[in-house]
């Protein structure tokens, strides 16, 4: 396995500003924050992708994200929060992680939503394909 900075943080081989940890997850300050208080939550077991994470760790990540969100709201008087995780070629570290980002009006951070040129029949076809896939998974 290639070097994983998050595994090194979890095993205390690299210094980080750890806010919280338990046997399943570790939460620390992002070294390149979008806004002050920007946190990362990672499972202590190394998983590269969201789809690989075991259910216990995934539950711990999302429950901790909610706990950290409440803390950030109280301490940083946010206007809102963005909870974000990326997969595949879009993530910057090959260890599954979730961002919890304090947000403020006019902070300049936003996701761009492109103009959607889809027709109702496109949505219907997509819905049918997705429902069919899910039905096969349940059988």
Question: Can you give a write-up of this model?
Answer:
The protein is of the alpha+beta class and 139 residues long. 34% of the residues lie in helices and 18% in strands. It is built from 3 helices and 5 strands; from the N terminus they run H-E-E-E-H-E-E-H. A 5-stranded antiparallel β-sheet has the order 1-2-3-5-4, with helices on one face. A hairpin with a 3-residue loop joins strand 1 and strand 2. The longest helix is centred in the middle third of the chain and has 22 residues. It starts with a helix and ends with a helix.
Summarize the structure.
The protein is of the alpha+beta class and 139 residues long.
Mean pLDDT: 93
Widest beta sheet: strand line-up: 1-2-3-5-4
Contiguous low-pLDDT stretches (5 residues minimum) are: none
Q: What kind of sheet is the major sheet? A: 5 strands, antiparallel
User: Structural class of the secondary elements?
Assistant: alpha+beta
As a percent range, the share of strand residues is 15-25%
Rg estimate, integer Å: 18 Å
- Outline, from the CA principal axes? globular
Helix content: 25-40%
Q: State the separation between the terminal residues, measured CA to CA.
A: 35 Å
Strand runs, count: 5
Number of continuous helical runs: 3
Q: Order of helices and strands, N to C?
A: HEEEHEEH
Helix/strand layout:
Layout: H1 5-10, E1 18-21, E2 25-29, E3 39-43, H2 55-76, E4 80-84, E5 98-103, H3 120-138
């Amino acid at each position: 396995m290639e070097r994983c900075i998050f595994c090194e943080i979890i095993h205390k081989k690299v210094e980080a500003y750890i806010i919280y940890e338990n046997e399943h997850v570790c939460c620390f300050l992002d070294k390149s924050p979008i806004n002050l208080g920007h946190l990362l939550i990672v499972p202590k077991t190394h998983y590269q992708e969201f789809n690989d994470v075991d259910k216990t760790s995934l539950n711990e990540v999302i429950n901790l994200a909610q706990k950290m969100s409440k803390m950030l709201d109280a301490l940083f008087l946010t206007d809102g929060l963005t909870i974000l995780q990326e997969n595949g070629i879009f993530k910057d570290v090959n260890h599954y992680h979730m961002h919890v980002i304090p947000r403020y009006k006019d902070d300049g951070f936003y996701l761009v939503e492109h103009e959607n040129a889809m027709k109702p029949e496109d949505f219907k076809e997509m819905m049918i394909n997705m429902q069919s896939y899910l039905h096969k998974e349940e059988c």
